[in-house]
Amino acid sequence: MAKIGRNTPCPCGSGKKYKRCCQQKEADMRQRELPAGRFRYESGSYGGPGRGYMPSIIGYKDDGTNSWQEHLCLVKPDAVLEAEDAASAISEKHLADARKILNSGGSSQDFAISLRQEGYKSLSDFRVVKDA
Q: What is the pLDDT at residue 17?
């Protein structure tokens, strides 16, 4: 992951300088202990017809009983597209890039920060719709 200069525009898209926006949040994130448990991630889209689709990544947590529970949903709200497949393709690329960070020796925090820097935000209230 490339180092971001303090005075460059923040990658989150806020329009503020990095030092006035996400620099401290990301420093805190690097210090924080991650929750115990195994996680897996899947790319997709969030939204619906007429509202548009945003690239999304859902995180599942191993609940210890041989099943996975939805744990978090990340969306990229600055990319609302009409085509669901286009939104899914964007999230697939971003998730692949974040996995490369892990595979090259990066930490889980680096993985999370890379998605944050792509503009992904966590949804507090989300619903997973299964394909029919």
A: 86
Q: Residue 20 and residue 42: Cα distance in Å, rounded?
A: 32
The DSSP code sequence of 84-131 is HHHHHHHHHHHHHHHHHHHHTT--HHHHHHHHHHTT-EEESS------
pLDDT range class, residue 62, cuts 50, 70, 90? confident
Q: What is the dihedral of CA 31, 35, 36, 41, to 10 degrees?
A: -110
SS3 53: strand
Q: How far is residue 115 from each of residues 7, 99, 122, measured CA to CA in Å?
A: 21, 10, 10
- The answer to whether 22 and 115 have CB atoms below 8 angstroms apart is no
The tokens describing 96, both together, are 């692949």
Q: What is the DSSP letter of 14?
A: S
Nearest Cα residue to 111 out of 78, 77, 86, 74: 74
